[in-house]
Write a structure and sequence with these properties.
The structure is a homodimer. Chain A is mainly alpha-helical. Helix content of chain A is about 60%, strand content about 10%. In chain A, β2 (about 80-85) and β3 form a beta hairpin. The termini of chain A are far apart. Chain A binds a DNA duplex (20 and 20 nucleotides) through α4 and α5.
Chain lengths: ~140, ~140
DNA sequence: CAGCATCCGACACGATACTG
DNA sequence: CAGTATCGTGTCGGATGCTG
């Protein structure tokens, strides 16, 4: 189908997220990932040191923190400032781009906060009547 | 520290997303996961059949689609309607809760659409000057 | 058509140890 | 303090085949 191909091309040009080949998918995946969302929303409050972030984002390992921070820096969402002191001081902060993302992202997180009860209740209801998650 | 424990308790009651034990984390993880975001935003346009979704969300496998759909149904975000016909017709649609989530979520996706160019450019710039992604 | 069961590879993730 | 290197495990996720 010719129209099919045209549609695909149009979707690619427009960054159609539904398209399999959308170049944004990898970035979206990592940016909306478990840890990245928390890291970004933590940085909304202001610049943080590595250890501060590690403490703020409960349960994250240094490896994951470092890894996510690097990915976010690569995407141009966070800025990494190294102070030439001893011991070294590294400060992470949101770029303008990152701050822009933080808006929609925190709204999403806040939605979860507001509707957390409903979500939990729905799960309990679901589990109680037909399919317990395990066993 | 007593205050530490009190703070932790307060965070749990308030669904503090930063807390390691936050009960919402698993739900958030799967809801903001690669496929779930696309499925939800696909359903905003209206109810879909299984095959329709499979086609709409480019690159997803039946397994992942089925799995995500089940998880979303469990969280009370999508509704599953089975018509007793032959062959069976199963229709998925957003619940009110799901529609509520779709708002913040589509805003987030649209943000990526608008700033996709900047993100991609930032990555290229980053890679070109210091750290190519894979040696 | 809708969807589950199974196998299997790839990597995400965490714990630990080590470096500057 | 701020990471990197390495290892082991668990889960993610695709391909295939079968059911009703």
């Amino acid at each position: 189908m010719e129209t099919q191909q045209v549609a695909t091309a149009a979707r690619l040009l427009a960054h159609d997220t539904f398209d399999k080949k959308c170049a944004l998918r990898p970035i979206m995946d990592q940016t909306t990932s478990r840890w990245a969302t928390l890291i970004i929303s933590a940085l909304v409050a202001g610049p943080h040191r590595f250890a501060q972030l590690h403490q703020r984002v409960g349960g994250i390992s240094q490896k994951m923190l470092s890894q996510n921070l690097k990915a976010l820096a690569r995407a141009g969402l966070v800025d990494r400032q190294v102070a030439p002191t001893n011991p070294p001081q590294v400060t992470y902060s949101l770029t303008d781009l990152g701050t822009g993302l933080a808006g929609p992202l925190t709204e999403l997180i806040q939605w979860f906060g507001r509707h957390g009860g409903e979500l939990l209740a729905a799960q309990e209801h679901y589990d109680s009547q037909q399919g317990p998650p395990r066993g």
